[in-house]
Amino acid sequence: MYVNFAPHPSEDLGHLFKETPCVNRSTSVRQRRLAVGTHLFREGDAAKYFYKIKSGVLRSTRVLKNGRRQVLSFSLPGDIIGFPNDEHHNTDCDVIAPAEVTLFRRKALANGEESPEMRQLLLLAALREISAMQDHLMVLARKSAIEKVASFLAVLSERTGTSLGNYSTFELPMSRADIADFLGLTIETVSRTFSVLRKSGAIALETSKIVVVLDMDALLDMSQTSD
Amino acid sequence: MYVNFAPHPSEDLGHLFKETPCVNRSTSVRQRRLAVGTHLFREGDAAKYFYKIKSGVLRSTRVLKNGRRQVLSFSLPGDIIGFPNDEHHNTDCDVIAPAEVTLFRRKALANGEESPEMRQLLLLAALREISAMQDHLMVLARKSAIEKVASFLAVLSERTGTSLGNYSTFELPMSRADIADFLGLTIETVSRTFSVLRKSGAIALETSKIVVVLDMDALLDMSQTSD
DNA sequence: CGCGCTTTTGAGATAACTCAATACAGGTGG
DNA sequence: CCACCTGTATTGAGTTATCTCAAAAGCGCG
Mean pLDDT over residues A177-188, rounded? Predict the structure, then answer.
């Protein structure tokens, strides 16, 4: 799922999977640890699995003819990814922070070998994905640079932040280039916008990758979140 | 589903629904005819149904706090719409060309009263929707005005065009404002871009709502469709 | 300590926006 | 049937947010 811009990223569906007694059934469920740089799958690969992320961060990307790259989503623990169009993946997906993922055989679902609950849960995950993508569409189409970056930081803070007195702090596992390609901006604009947010007092940067949210209300004000 | 930007909009899933023997089961399947302006549902409404479009055109929209509107999708015959986030719709959906839709009770699916095939098909429709939205993300984030409009016209031509000698012609059921709000542009920019495409000889406008594609190759060249 | 890569900052260019005016089309009433 | 009227579409002119190109600063690593 997306970094997520959905109303309630906290109520993820992931835990439901844990309850499913998959091991007693035909689906082979497997765990895997993945180092940074590993590709979970590439565009065009046969889609053999769905993946539930237990830890780490993954990145889904796609490229236009002319080389312009788009980061479609960043995926965090609890997210379920690997929804294919048909038999094949239509994005590249690689690891940007060391990750553990659980694999679910897609075929078992397609063949009806899988439990109905499992199938239902997957549908719910897909519906949630659709909702998250709608939110991201709004961001890309209708928000200014500062609104985009503020939204992005607000969501990351919500999902991965640890509180630090009145403040909240979190690490950005991705580069400025990734953020730019996710938000439909350039590296320079992202960097400049970080500076604006710093100077406004909404955030501070401990390092270029460690953000401290000093004023969440200000950040949310600037993010123009959907009605 | 989206107007669609997906690789193969022709292979829609709709026909599969027809084969499903829903009438013999608990799902009440109903038909409905809808006049222009009718709301199929509104943001916040309880999501009682999924809808399969038999004819006509529908429009899904969402609005930001500050009033900026985004058209999330135009839906054409064969598309399945009404995917909710949870129990509620998160978009407005209204009719922009007289439509016939088939209703499928969502509850029956959630309760497992529905056939496994039905559920599977719905999952496939959702996956297809995700894929289409990914395509549209690329358009919004990474394409210029002319590429956006060219993509849009190419897809509409593909999905609704009738061939006319070497040419292809189709009607735009939506206003320039709708197209602008779909592509993340302004009315003026859309209008100017139509003029550019006219002057380049790629298209002609019979009326402002009736497009003739004179040179599909040129149109596709300008659309920078994803790799 | 120095090298390469990422990030930040600066200055100028440009695509798309805003505001404004004109043209067009469809519908209504005289 | 034509003139008017209203909403939509087109065109024009000037502004602006973001991009591009370029340089400097910061950071991690051998």
Answer: 98
Closest by CA position to A72, among listed A82, A61, A63? A61
Rounded Cα distance, A167 and A150, in Å: 16
Domains of chain B: 14-139 (2.60.120.10), 143-223 (1.10.10.10)
Those nucleotides of strand D lying less than 7 Å from any protein Cβ are 8-13, 17-22, 27-28
Interface test with A, best of B64, B89, B111, B136 (most A CBs within 10 A): B64
CB burial of B160-182 (b: ≥16 within 10 Å; e: otherwise) equals bbeeeeebbbbbbbbebebbbbb
pTM of the model: 0.90
Measured over the CA atoms of residue B165, residue B223, residue B180 and residue B50, the dihedral's sign is positive
* Measured CA angle at A28 (ends A23, A29), to 5 deg: 70
| A1-11 b/e (C-beta count within 10 Å ≥ 16 → b) | bbbbbbeebee
Query: Hunting for tokens 């989503």 — which residue is that?
Result: A73
* pLDDT per position as a tens digit, A90-132: 999 999 999 999 999 887 766 666 677 778 888 899 999 999 9
